[in-house]
Amino acid sequence: MSDSDAGGEQEQESKPTPRPVTAAARRERRASARPAGKAAAKDADKARPAKAASSTDGATKAEVKKGRATPKRDRKEKKPSLVARLVRFAREVWAELRKVIWPTRNQMVTYTSVVLVFVAFMVALVYLLDFVFRKGVFWLFG
Description:
- The protein is mainly alpha-helical.
């Protein structure tokens, strides 16, 4: 064999399989990649035919289960103490605050100045409207 033939075989072997395009092909690829564990056991259970109950009166397994009462819980789940709930709340608040992207100093100065200018504009607008309405009322009712 020549060097070009050997190189060609290696390229074909190392080439990965193409990605599946259809959903069915993706499911098949995922199924083949799964280890034989719980998934294989579930598939085996599905493949087995259901066994009929062998009782003398011909009752099925489901009918036999219906005769029993549902077992009651002995007691309610314990609620954590007030201190434990407050500590958990504080931890969750702290975790959320770590996720926040805080503004830089420059951004804070910009945002603050924008808010102050807007508030000053609104105060001036309300004062102007108040002045105009006051003059109008005094002119109308004297």
